[in-house]
Design brief:
Length: about 150
């Protein structure tokens, strides 16, 4: 039985921009190493893998929650022409709970990140999609009380 969410890994070309995005959400860099060699190639199923592996940790979260960034040095990354399309099969988006969605949206927009839509009310929540690193969709959710 699953105990809790542990991490999500995102392949990026621009690690600094991705780190800046997640820093705005409260993630801090914990480690950065280069993974390579036969053990990682076998585990990941990527022959000849060499990649920067950056672990970002959400501060003050219990249990621990991580975003892991992979910046491939070898082989080249494969483009996903449908990364923006939320009707594609497979991974759709990840959502983070926030206390003040308008403040979060303002900070993200102020740092040059775009929302995909305006904040909407749905099932006693305020929700918004953010265009995250490499076009990955990130959702913010603020539960409404009362």
């Amino acid at each position: 039985m699953v105990k809790n969410f542990d991490h999500l890994t995102i392949v990026v070309r621009d690690a600094e921009r991705a780190k800046a995005f997640f820093a705005l959400l409260g993630f801090k860099e914990a480690t950065s190493v280069v993974i390579k060699g036969p053990v990682f190639a076998d585990y990941m199923g990527v022959p000849g893998i060499e990649a920067e592996h950056i672990t970002l940790v959400l501060e003050n979260a219990t249990p621990r929650a991580e975003i892991q960034l992979l910046r491939y040095l070898h082989p080249e990354t494969l483009p996903d022409p449908h990364v923006h399309d939320l009707n594609k099969l497979g991974m759709n988006h990840i959502c983070f709970a926030v206390d003040d969605i308008e403040a979060e949206v303002s900070r993200l927009r102020g740092a040059g990140f775009r929302t995909r839509n305006e904040v909407m009310d749905f099932h006693a929540r305020k929700l918004v999609f953010i265009e995250g690193p490499e076009g990955v969709t990130i959702e913010l959710s603020q539960r409404q009380t009362g």
